[in-house]
Amino acid sequence: MADNIINVHEVHKTFVSEDKQSLWDRFRGRTHEARRVEVLKGVNLQVTQSETVVILGSSGSGKSTLLRCINKLETIDSGRIYVHGHLVGYREQNGELVAERASITAKKRTDVGMVFQHFNLFLNKTALGNVMAPLRDVKKMSAADARTKAVHHLEMVGLGDKLDNYPTKLSGGQKQRVAIARALAMEPAVMLFDEPTSALDPELVGEVLAVIKRIAEEGTTMVIVTHEMQFAREIATRIVVMDQGLIVEEGPPEIIFTNPQHDKTRALLSRSQTSPN
Amino acid sequence: MEFITDTLAVFPALFGAVPIVLQLAAGAMLLALVLGLLTALARISQSKVLRAVAVFFVEVIRGTPLLVQLVYIFFVLPSIGIAIDPVPAGILGLGINYAAYLSEVFRSAILSVEAGQTEAALSLGYTPTKALWRVVIPQSFVVSLGPIGNYFIAMVKDTALTSVIAVTEILKTANILNSQTFQTTEIYTAAAILYLMLSLPLARIVVLMERKARSRG
Ligand SMILES: Nc1ncnc2c1ncn2[C@@H]1O[C@H](COP(=O)(O)OP(=O)(O)O)[C@@H](O)[C@H]1O
Ligand SMILES: [Mg+2]
């Protein structure tokens, strides 16, 4: 489909953690044990223009891995992921995925903004410096233009008075809003949020969710992983439920929240209703 | 009283050696910074060969005395047709030696920048190389400032070792004076004080630089 911004097709991903092999084992010719965890077991997901897709699922179900695969922070074993109709990190050769040049991947990644659980701000730069850096280094904007744009985006997330603060002088909520401004200033076609409020003190969650909500209302295409059920229900145009590496249920929030079909979905919803927040 | 005036009288002759010491230390430090960074990058690179070469280099250099390395460069290399003048040989020996130690400083500093920042940079469209140079290395440099400064002070003192390869630095100059006047106590006391006069202000500068770098983050 042409208006698919993200198209995840039958994606499999297995993590292989190599146990350190001792010199003695190698000497004896002993083959070493590699632990294999299949994290994505054939995931399919389409995201179209202006959708807000919220992914729910218990910890370890593969949500982060799926987001990270979309902009090739992780490799995939099989299947295809298209962003704007293009593979990211690969080209196809005789039906096989072949790694593409890093510079090409980098260019494609500017289409996908990502916000991480732990903010990942550049610690040696101020709030302004964080937002300006990729505009200068990647978009090659002039210092003056980058500054104007960065200030604009920081004002949009309510941080116009914190431009010159280093990350150590910002609260968690402020750091996450800088990270959101930094990603948005690159004008990506889609924004990925991986548990953007999970590392925040409860009283700081609201300010970040409010910013994300406003961005969604402006029509930005988004995929959000979150455990904030109330927020998910308000903001999502579609809810996707993951369990053990598979999407087990998806649909509009009013249906998922009122008439969940899958046991896992029911479990997730009941747990959130009994918990204090 | 006479000891003090005699000791003071030695200084003018020793001062003449200070420019050579600074030239040695500055040249060798520059070499050590560049070679040390390259070695650190080789050690964390994807290539097995590069990693092996870097580990071999670091272990060989750290496993042999600096004095032996200087002697090797100055007295052994000529036998295979590589003759190097004393000062360049001193810069080369000191630079290579300190590069091995600095590479460890750089390597741990690079690894100390959380992977999350690199991932953020990649997700913003930086290439891996650009993320390394624009995001990771500037921060690891700040972390390394203190250790680099301390190694520089150590290097200023280690320039004394180049006296054995005919560099007329402070110690060599003192040796020459001693063979002429036999005022052994005065001459070497003056030499020791001169090294202190060089290293104490440097130590102060390092502390100030570290404090400044820390106050930013
Ligand atoms: N780099 C990795 N190496 C090995 N296993 C990993 C790695 N990253 C994630 N995993 C495993 O993959 C599974 C899914 O992880 P993740 O995608 O982070 O889940 P979620 O975000 O839904 O909590 C977990 O069992 C986790 O331990
Ligand atoms: Mg996760």
TrEMBL record, chain B:
Pfam families: BPD_transp_1. It is found in: Cell membrane. The keyword Endoplasmic reticulum does not apply. One of its GO terms (molecular function) is transmembrane transporter activity. One of its GO terms (biological process) is amino acid transport. Residues 18-206 form the ABC transmembrane type-1 domain. Its main location: membrane. It is a multi-pass membrane protein. Keywords: Amino-acid transport, Cell membrane, Membrane, Transmembrane, Transmembrane helix, Transport. The chain crosses the membrane at residues 20-41, 53-77, 89-110, 131-153, 187-207. The keyword tRNA processing does not apply. Belongs to the binding-protein-dependent transport system permease family. This is Amino acid ABC transporter permease.
